[in-house]
Design a protein that fits this description.
The structure is a single chain. The chain has two domains: about 150 residues, Gcn5-related N-acetyltransferase (GNAT) (Aminopeptidase); about 160 residues, Gcn5-related N-acetyltransferase (GNAT) (Aminopeptidase). It has about 350 residues and is α+β, with helices and mostly antiparallel strands. It contains 14 helices and 16 strands. The strands form three sheets. The protein has a six-stranded mixed sheet with strand order 2-5-6-8-16-9. The longest helix has 20 residues. The chain is elongated, with a radius of gyration of 22 Å.
């Protein structure tokens, strides 16, 4: 196996044509693993030294990428982390061909054991529960002199979607919540029919994506002080403004708005990827239209649309907020691996 450690930013251009092809054949194929997400994240943040390890077979086919960088931490020293960062990337993993996972994990552990002088600790997180990184990699690390531990670090509540919206309201949600959602939908639709206008739309090629993103970020900031503080960081804004148009061009962005009486009242920024809807962030005007529950109404439209489009999973991503469970979500744990 040919192993390379890539440390120059041009690695993203070098791997451009192969990265997503490998991802499609990996165990953890999420939008957060794409070339687009990783390259734009690095351009926006650049928090340390790139340390991307690639693996090729004897035919020079790319069969593994460990998308690492080395963070220089005042307390922990030189820390190996995933490109994408813990704060803005909900799923992270080594990208490994399903057919070559044992060989790549073994070789990756051997490489880290040989290069231990380049880092002090490995700290990688947000690894899905079904990933072989969690189940296969640790014994290989131990064989190469690294002491490794794995622990749950958060949850990503998900809704396995039924075939019909009625089945969702009747069977996925409990009866009380199903009745409550129906009541809110009737109230919103009654308002639209009798008193004013209420509609929703998904941003498409007829919209100016940059203008729609500014509208989204304004609602996001108004919805909660923590979100407003998040958007005070120019790196976060730079990342949003660069990666979201790139994902839109690939057909993976589902940015949508609820409009009441001509004003944006609520918004969701989702990803539509591999037959799943992933709810990345949201925004709300808390001072107007609260009597119409615009956030829940728009979320329900999103779930209904996902079912009608045949999507199989509605993923709320990280966080155990109560509203996710009221909508019928079930916990899917994600994990952190540390080694030294």
């Amino acid at each position: 196996m040919n192993v390379q450690i890539l440390t120059h930013p041009d690695l993203f251009e070098v791997l451009h044509d192969e990265w997503n092809t490998l991802l499609q054949n990996s165990h953890t194929n999420t939008v957060f693993g794409t070339w687009e997400w990783n390259s734009h994240w690095w351009q926006a943040y650049q928090p340390g030294d790139l340390w991307v390890i690639t693996f090729r077979n004897n035919s020079d086919e790319l069969i593994g990428i460990a998308p690492f960088f080395i963070d220089h931490d005042d307390e922990k020293g030189r820390v190996v982390r995933f490109i994408g960062g813990e704060d803005v990337t909900d799923y992270q993993d080594v990208i490994v061909s399903c057919q070559d996972s044992d060989a790549v994990y073994s070789c990756l552990a051997h490489t880290l054991g040989e290069r231990h002088d380049a880092f002090d600790v490995i700290d990688i997180c947000n690894i899905p529960q079904d990933s072989p990184t969690r189940s296969k990699w640790l014994p290989f690390l131990e064989e190469n002199g690294l002491t490794a531990t794995v622990e749950q670090n958060e949850v990503c509540p998900i809704i396995p979607l039924p075939e019909t919206f009625d089945a969702y309201l009747d069977n996925v949600m409990d009866s009380k919540q199903g009745r409550e959602v129906r009541r809110k939908m009737r109230k919103a639709e009654g308002y639209s029919a009798q008193m004013g206008s209420l509609s929703w739309y998904i941003v498409d090629d007829t919209h100016d994506i940059n203008a729609e993103l500014k509208k989204f970020m304004a609602l996001m900031a108004s919805s909660h002080p923590e979100k407003a503080a998040f958007l005070q960081d120019p790196q976060h804004v730079k990342f949003f403004e660069s990666v979201m148009p790139a994902l839109r061009d690939k057909g993976w962005l589902q940015l949508n708005f609820l409009v009441i009486d001509g004003e944006p009242a609520a918004t969701y920024l989702n990803f539509d990827y591999e037959n799943m809807i992933l709810v990345y962030n949201s925004g709300l005007n808390p001072n107007k239209f609260s009597h119409l529950s615009p956030g829940i109404v728009l979320l329900t439209y999103n779930i209904q649309h996902a079912i009608e489009q045949g999507r199989r999973v509605f993923d709320f991503l990280r966080g155990n907020e109560n509203y996710k469970y009221r909508m019928g979500a079930q916990d899917a744990p994600i994990y952190r691996i540390t080694a030294q």
